Amino acid sequence: MSSLFSRISGQPATYDKKSQYKMGRTLGAGTYGIVREADSSTGKVAVKIILKKNVKGNEQMVYDELQLLQNLKHPHIVRFVDWFESKDKYYIVTQLATGGELFDRICEYGKFTEKDAVQVVKEVLDAVDYLHERNVVHRDLKPENLLYLTPDHNSSLVLADFGIAKMLDSKDEMLTTMAGSFGYAAPEVMLKKGHGKPVDMWSLGVITYTLLCGYSPFRSETLPELIDECSNGRVVFHERYWKGVSSDAKNFIGELLQPSPQDRLTSSEALKHVWLKGETATEHDILPDLKQFLARARLKRGVELVRLSNRIQALRLQQDANSEDQDDVPEHPGEAAANAPGAPPVPSGGARRLSRAARSAIFREVVLAKVRDMKAQQQREEAEKTVTSLSTPK
Fold first, then answer.
1. Which is nearest to 144 in space by CA: 103, 195, 202, 109?
2. What's residue 346's pLDDT?
3. pLDDT at residue 332 tops 60
4. Which of 230 and 2 is assigned the larger pLDDT?
5. pLDDT digits (tens, 9 = 90+) for 171-208
6. Is the N end or the C end of the chain the one with fewer CB atoms within 10 Å?
7. 120 and 265 assigned to the same domain
8. What is the pLDDT of residues 3-31, one digit of tens each?
9. Neighbours of 314 (CB within 10 A)
10. Same domain, 368 and 238
């Protein structure tokens, strides 16, 4: 009966599956749609909802993600569950990781040592090596995409968000589109020189560095400066923060943060590095520095909450008025954003209950962030012009 109703209403055949999922809180929002928690017959899952009008002409990116996820089966990669579509949306259902983001979770520990960091990096690297063996490049490795499956202390870490991952036609194929996140993208990506698997190894180097000291190896705030900083390969291990960390850890990071992709360790080579054996890793407690890192991110989370709310509202306005799935994008984006994992605690009643000082601080940061975004966009355009002029034959 339900499939007959779908045909009569013009819905695709797979739309029948939607009744199997009861949508819950919003977990995040991006350019193309949102991610929501949902209840299913087998338990809680994550549902990525993509508005078709936002990917019109680029539907292949959705199909690529679907194909990738369906073929990946690894304990440290988020598991594909199902997919379906409606007239105006795609739905991708995956395993729900409830244990929190990497740095958030670590900061709940009483202690976090270099030996603990080895285990974290090994789990991420196992997943990356699995991908690279299959000619898949993730292209967006960053702490926010590293999630713990459950709140249990011995929970596995999983790699998530394959929205811009690519399967290479051959191991030597070069990708040319801009990809990755500011601060984690490899220099060849920012320079549009063509890139492949080594970009994931660079990102892993940035993550490992940050994991061991609580700050990024590259701290430039504009694209031209960041390109220059990364291209010169100036990786500094400040004595004050690194004196308790082993030389093998520094060597491992240095082998990954090589400006030339050909000089970086491959995933299989990195897995054989002496540091990952854990024998030379110290018991130096990194947690105090990581907690400072998280504290600096608190206000940024407030800004992201506001951005998330605005993005959800924009996506809701983009929905067709006659959509069968109006409930997929929350009607009250502010409350949905406040319930998102990693958002700052908001008292009952949502954003209206935030203190005047908190609202003022968030508003100020939103304005400053907007100004920085505008400046960054302008500098990005100038940098791209410079790169184009340098690559044009004289």
1. 103
2. 40
3. no
4. 230
5. 778 888 878 888 899 999 988 888 999 999 999 999 99
6. C
7. yes
8. 555 555 678 989 999 999 999 988 877 66
9. 13
10. no
Task: Give start and end residues of each alpha helix (H) in 161-286.
Answer: 187-190, 198-213, 223-231, 239-242, 247-256, 267-271
Give the H or E element holding residue 369: helix 356-391
Residue 341 lies inside a defined structural domain of this protein: no
Interatomic CA distance for residues 338 and 162, integer angstroms: 25
134 and 230 inside one domain: yes
* pLDDT surpasses 90 at 54: no
Amino acid of residue 184: Y
Nearest to 280 by CA among 238, 249, 237: 249
Query: Taking the C-alpha atoms of 353, 302, 327 and 59 in order, what is their torsion angle to the nearest 10 degrees?
Result: 170
Q: Distance between CA atoms of 150 and 127, rounded to whole angstroms?
A: 18
d(CA 37, CA 384): 39
Confirm if 149 and 98 have CB atoms less than 8 A apart.
Answer: yes
- Please tell me whether residues 25 and 165 are part of one structural domain: no
State yes or no: is 152 an active-site residue: no
pLDDT tens-digit series, residues 263-277? 999 999 999 999 999
* Domain extent for 248: 102-285
Which is more confidently placed, 375 or 27?
Answer: 27
Residue numbers in the known binding site are 52
Q: What share of the chain is helix, strand, coil (3-state, %, to 5)?
A: 50, 15, 35
331 or 259: which leads in pLDDT:
259
State the CATH number of the domain containing residue 257. Answer: 1.10.510.10
Dihedral over alpha carbons 173, 179, 181, 182 (to 10 degrees): 100
Our separate counts of H helices and E strands in the chain read 13, 9
**Active-site residue, from 88, 104, 129, 140:** 140
Q: Which range among 59-68, 69-78, 293-302 shows the weakest confidence by mean pLDDT?
A: 293-302
Q: Which structure tokens are listed for 243?
A: 């004196």
Question: Quick one: pLDDT band at residue 80, thresholds 50, 70, 90?
Answer: very high
